[in-house]
Amino acid sequence: TGFVTYDPGFVNTAACTSAITYIDGDAGILRYRGYPIEQLAEKSSFIEVSYLLMYGELPTAAQLTEFSDRLRVHTLLHEDMRRFFEGFPRDAHPMSVLSASVSALGTFYQDSLDPFDHDQVEISTVRLLAKLPTIASYAYKKSIGQPLLYPDNSLGYVENYLRMTFGVPATAYEIDPVMAKALDLLLVLHADHEQNCSTSAVRLVGSAHASLFASVSSGVNALSGPLHGGANEAVLEMLEKIRLDGGDVAAFVRKVKAREDGIKLMGFGHRVYKNYDPRAAIVKGMAQEVLGRMAKPDPLLDIAMQLEEIALADDFFVSRKLYPNVDFYTGLIYKAMGFPPKMFTVLFALGRLPGWIAQWREMIGDSATKIGRPRQVYTGAPVRDFIPLDQR
Ligand code: CMC
């Protein structure tokens, strides 16, 4: 019955109603639960923002303490799960390790997979948020051949993650507060972005009443793509390539415009922001600050700034409303913090996790939700008769 709308990429199709994140792409506005991203970036913290996204309101001091304490006691991985990391190949992409591990949480917590049991959803929410940093750091430690560190629950969320990532056993690890603050802020900026590709994947899988772990694992996989979260890694590869080719930024921009080898300016353009990406503005300021503290300046920052300047003055990019997005400068900051490019998208996933959970919970609690099941416009052969094998 009725007609089917053909809308590739769902550019004009709202698949749900949502009260979580508001974006005005033309005005460059982003708000979580009504709060402007600029205010949250300046005054809030990742745990507070996670609470806000998932429960709808900023926590009181008591609620924040209780929530942080709950997270703290769930940071350990099951010992059997810890051994998984011995089995992954050393050069595995950490995003694959991450999605496989999130999926595997469903095998350890079979008592909490029911999407309609409030207590089960609560404990899964806490377990996911508490354990993802542990999983992420183990994926990294595996790749460099260092021993895995148990979480130190006297530390804050980000501090604990940094220690598990960069610390080694029997050696004190000094947390750089500027680095911890910068990472916390980057997680805040990534925490939700309404119906982006990975969040839509989480909702779609969840709409079939798959568990929170199964749904979030799909989100991690979607995020790994270079057109989505994988862009931060791709930006750094692009900057490095420009540097190795002699640093001729204008020549690279000409190649992009000529669509040579189909190359795109990674970290540029956005489906929704057609004016500027408010997250990118905050990240750019931070890149200059964090990179400015380094003993040796990173030549890639200079290339990035030149690239931005040339592109923003070029009609090809201006007429297509292509501006730097959140991923353009984040990679440089992560690099300055000591993360290898392969870990950049994992950091995006750590940040996006509360958004995925909030959107999944909203979807499950929404009486209008139906199983996601798009239609198609069939373009194949008309009906025809089967031809036996010996006559083909
Ligand atoms: N470099 C060169 N040309 C571009 C770029 C780019 N980065 N992005 C879009 N275009 C061109 C595109 O070729 C098209 O040109 P024409 O009209 O002549 O065919 C026009 O601009 C419109 O682009 P579109 O592909 O229709 O836009 P979209 O909304 O489908 O894609 C996008 C959005 C983000 C996938 C795309 O801009 C892109 O591939 N950017 C590079 C990857 C990237 O940085 N992704 C991160 C996105 S932000 C964070 C996140 O979601 O993870």
Automatic annotation (TrEMBL):
Record flagged with keyword Acyltransferase: yes
Entries under InterPro entries matching the protein: Citrate_synth-like_lrg_a-sub, Citrate_synth-like_sm_a-sub, Citrate_synthase, Citrate_synthase_AS, Citrate_synthase_bac-typ, Citrate_synthase_sf, Citrate_synthase_typ-I
Pfam families referenced in this protein's UniProt entry, alphabetically: Citrate_synt
Reaction catalysis annotation: oxaloacetate + acetyl-CoA + H2O = citrate + CoA + H(+)
Species for this entry: Allocatelliglobosispora scoriae
Record-annotated active site: H270, D327
Family, similarity comment: Belongs to the citrate synthase family.
The protein's annotated pathway: Carbohydrate metabolism; tricarboxylic acid cycle; isocitrate from oxaloacetate: step 1/2
Name of the protein in question: Citrate synthase
Coiled coil (UniProt feature): none
GO cellular component: cytoplasm
Keywords linked to the UniProt accession: Acyltransferase, Transferase, Tricarboxylic acid cycle
Gene Ontology molecular functions: citrate synthase activity
GO annotation, biological process: tricarboxylic acid cycle
